[in-house]
Amino acid sequence: MNFQRVILGAATTALLAGSASAAVLYDQPSNNFGAFSSQNDTASGGFGNFVTTFDNFTLGSAATIESVDFTGAFFNPVTHGSITGFTIAISADSSGIPGAQLYSKFIGGSGGETSLGTDTQGDLVFGYSENISFSAAAGTQYWLSIVPDLAFPPQWGWENSSVGDGAGYQIFFGSGGAITSDSAFTLNDTPSKVPEPVTLSLFGAGIAGAAAMRRRKRK
After folding, report:
1. Residue 200: exposed, middle, or buried by beta-carbon count in 10 A (0-12, 13-18, 19+)?
2. Which of 149, 157, 183, 209 is 20 to 30 Å from the Cα of 32, by its Cα?
3. Are 32 and 126 in contact (CB under 8 A)?
4. Which pairing describes strands 155-161 and 141-149: parallel, antiparallel, or unpaired?
5. Which pLDDT score, from 0 to 100, does residue 63 have?
6. What are the two backbone dihedrals, phi and then psi, of residue 110, each rounded to the nearest 5 degrees?
7. pLDDT (tens digit, 9 = 90+) per residue, 101-123?
8. CB atoms within 10 A of CB 112
């Protein structure tokens, strides 16, 4: 019985810690008006990382970015695809375009994918959240990129935002160029409320322990 309490207590503590309210450091909400493609094609004989979209951001105060929420869409054709992971990267600024990469993290899974309906272009829109850890300096411009692992077709795109400076960047089949668009994302100073795999394991162990205790009592 004591073991059961310890496991359930640890799992509950971990879940509560993961669900703490995030303080928003930077916010560019979606305008629900289409997306710019960004994708690592994992299909056999596919294109690989054929397109990456970047958007810039600057924080007013130094902070550690612990999670990023973002909005994406499926199109070409408009059908839901199976995302197996995301690569979240942050690059330095180089004369107004992405420069040297400062941080990169690959996270397996679908980023807590949550349906948000469709945008004005008829694309299937979803919300995502991933945990990262990047210490950003105050008043310094950085470039964020988000690339899902997803077999083509369909294409996945990072939804647009009407908030920002109207400056983005996209590398398409090795050719980079400016895009006059901002992308939909939010930077937070606390981890996402989506439980990490280890947290889910603890929670599962707690449930299994409780079930075992009930079975023993019946016997």
Report:
1. middle
2. 149
3. no
4. unpaired
5. 98
6. -105, 15
7. 999 999 999 999 999 999 999 99
8. 15
Q: How far apart are CA 18 and CA 120, in angstroms?
A: 33
Q: Say how many CA atoms lie within 13 Å of 141 toward its Cβ.
A: 14
Non-local CB neighbours of 184 within 8 Å, separated by 6+ positions: 28, 29, 30, 31, 70, 71, 158, 159, 160, 161
Cα–Cα distances (Å) from 33 to 73, 92, 157, 174, in that order, read 10, 28, 12, 26
pLDDT, one tens digit per residue, over 171-187 is 999 999 999 999 999 99
Per-residue confidence (pLDDT) for residue 37, from 0 to 100 = 98
Tokens 């995502």: give the residue: 128
**DSSP letter, residue 129:** E
Structure tokens at 120: 């004005």
> Which residues are paired to 215 by β-bridges?
none
